[in-house]
Amino acid sequence: MNINENVKNPDVWTRGLFVVLFGIIYYLLFFLVVLIAVFQFLMRLFTARFNDELLAFSDSLAEYVSQILRYITFKSDDRPYPFSSWPVIDNNIADTQTATTTTKKKRSRKKTSKKTASNDSGPDSSGDETGKSS
Question: Which of 48, 75, 89, 120 sits 20 to 30 Å CA-CA off 18?
Answer without folding.
Answer: 89
